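User: Please predict the structure of the protein below. I'd like the answer in structure-token form so I can feed it into my own downstream comparison script.

Assistant: Understood. Taking the following sequence of 138 residues as input:
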Amino acid sequence: MGNIKNNTLVFLTLFVSAFLIFNNYRVSQSMIIGEWIGNNKIYELSIVFIEDNTCKISIYNKHTFQGSEIYGEYEIDYSKRPIPLKIKKIKQLNHPLYSIFDLMSKDSMRFSYFSPHWKLRNINYESDSYIDLIRVVE
């Protein structure tokens, strides 16, 4: 009987420890700085995050053969999962863009499509509504 209690106690301790370790994984600005590229069936995407909170986004639609570049300032709330992203002060648009992303590793991220409205942005990664990006290593 005592052996079962000890095993249960050890299991619970390991489970709680693992939960606390993985739950406290923090993403910081330094982890996203740089160029990220990726594509899916529809889009090719390049995002450059710069330390001064500005960014350059290049989007190419493979179906329409049209591309565009936008420049703006980004805001990120690193305390939430998935991580919300707002691109504001976009010279080419009269509204901000909203998205979510998650770092899969130090060199890969999952990035949802942009929305022009906060309440209409994705809150998860449904099929065909995201692009996996990899860090460009120079």
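That's the full token string. The longest helix spans residues 2-23.
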